[in-house]
């Protein structure tokens, strides 16, 4: 989980992600994948990957989010399901429910929703192969 020690800041770090959505990009629609995703721009829809997600400080997401691990420093409006570890940076603003195995919240982060932690069947189901995310299961 080296991903959570320091947010990537260099081009080399950004290049390690399979998908990078830059600060000038606005993505609308469902996104599903297998690898790591870095979002620095705006996204509306659903986001699911079997890899890790990093949401930059200036990023804004209105989506159901599902991944293996995640580091969130920006804004997310929607439910988040993480099979492993979720870290919320001090600048994170979450408007939705969180379901994760483990969670770290920096002072200053905002969560408006309920948090469910631990190994539960819904977390495993969320990371199964039925992507994109089906909102009726959330």
Present the secondary structure layout.
Blueprint: H1 11-15, E1 19-21, E2 26-28, E3 31-33, E4 37-39, E5 42-49, E6 52-55, E7 60-67, E8 69-72, E9 75-77, E10 80-88, E11 93-95, E12 98-105, E13 110-112, E14 115-117, H2 121-126
Parallel strand pairs: 1-4, 2-5, 3-5, 4-6, 5-7, 6-8, 7-9, 7-10, 8-10, 9-11, 10-12, 11-13, 12-14
Question: What brief labels describe this structure?
Answer:
138 residues; mainly beta; 14-stranded parallel sheet; 2 helices; 14 strands; 47% strand
Helix/strand structural class:
mainly beta
Question: Outline, from the CA principal axes?
Answer: globular
Rg value: 13 Å
Give the total of beta strands: 14
- Number of separate structural domains: 1
Counting copies of identical and different chains, the oligomeric state is single chain
Distance from first to last alpha carbon:
26 Å
Residue share in β-strands: over 45%
Please outline the major beta sheet. 14 strands, parallel
Report the uncertain regions: 5-15, 131-138
H/E series, N to C? HEEEEEEEEEEEEEEH
Number of helices: 2
Averaged pLDDT: 82
Q: Helical proportion? A: under 10%
